[in-house]
Every structure is written in C-alpha cells, then in structure tokens.
Amino acid sequence: MLTACASAPHRALQQEVALQQRAAGAYAKGDLAVALKAYRQLADDMPDDTASWFRLGNVYARLNQPDAAMKAYRHVLQRDPEHAKAWHNLGVIYLHQAAAAFVQSARTADRDAELRDQSMHMATKLEDIAGADAGHAPAQGTPTAAQAPNAMGRPVKGEGP
C-alpha cells in the first residue's frame, strides 16, 4: 500500500515533466496551438510556477493576443516582482500599444495636420524602439534551446527564465 501511495506523486511529477517538454518542444517548433494548450495546463496545474506562466505569456504574445500575454506576465510579477524578463516583455507590449494609439490619433486628426504628423512621428519612433528589441532582449529561453524568441516572436539569445 505504501508503494502505491509513493508512486502516485512520482507519476504525477513525471506527467508534469512530460507536459513541460511537450510545451517547450511545440514552442520551439512554432506549433503555438499545442504550446498554448500545454502551457495553459501547466499554469492551471501549478499556479505558482512563474516559468510556465511566463512562457504562456510568450505564446500569447506570439499569437498576437497582447491582453492575455499581459495578464500572464502580471501573474508572474505578482509572484516574482524581480522577474526582469516579464517586465521587459510587458514593456514591449506597452510600446506596441502606444504606437497603435498614436497611429489611431493620426488617422482621426483630419483637421489637424500638425497633430497628425506628430502622432505618426511618435508611432514610428515607438515601433523603431520596439523593433530594436529583437537583438537585445532575453525572453523565452527554454532550458533546451540555445535561442528563443522574445515576446514579439523574434529570435534572441537567452537563458532560461
């Protein structure tokens, strides 16, 4: 009887490890649907595991679901306020959202050429800044990958979360 009790937690741990490997493999291959399902399950199973939540945020970001990505990154930051990669990726999303707001401002500034020009200038500058992120930011960094994409799906060299 004790053997059965001891093997159940071991089996559960093996299943979690297998799920983590499946999620990381799918993400590395670009199979975001499988990665999303696996990371959601991991996040549900281990709500305090910041690594799973961080990677879930990265999947959402690559799927162009910034609100869901931000929610996942905030979940990480509630548990680990020092998680620099989550702060970074959250900042990248905010940059893209700010640029989109300036583009919308330019589109609606029909009667104000100066505002339209300023808004487009700001949008361009913000996108340039966000685009510069591609070569400098750590992000996903799965334990088995030498390179991993950042929040916006660009490959960068990084270490594990």
Structure description:
This protein is mainly alpha-helical and about 160 residues long. The protein has a domain at about 50-155. It has six helices and two strands; from the N terminus they run ααααααββ. It has helices at about 1-30, 30-45, 50-60, 65-80, 85-110, 115-130, and strands at about 145-150, 155. A two-stranded antiparallel ribbon has the order 1-2. The longest helix has 28 residues, at about 1-30. The protein is elongated, with a radius of gyration of 19 Å. Residues about 140-160 have low confidence and may be disordered.
Provide a concise account of the structure shown.
InterPro entries: TPR-like_helical_dom_sf, TPR_rpt. This protein has 161 residues and is mostly helical. Helices cover 71% and strands 4% of the residues.
Low-confidence stretches: 140-161
Q: Report the sheet-strand fraction.
A: under 5%
**Strand order in the largest sheet:** 1-2
Helix content: over 70%
Tell me how many strands there are. 2
Features:
single chain; 161 residues; mainly alpha; 2 strands; 71% helix
What is the topology?
Blueprint: H1 2-29, H2 32-45, H3 50-62, H4 66-79, H5 84-108, H6 113-132, E1 147-149, E2 155-157
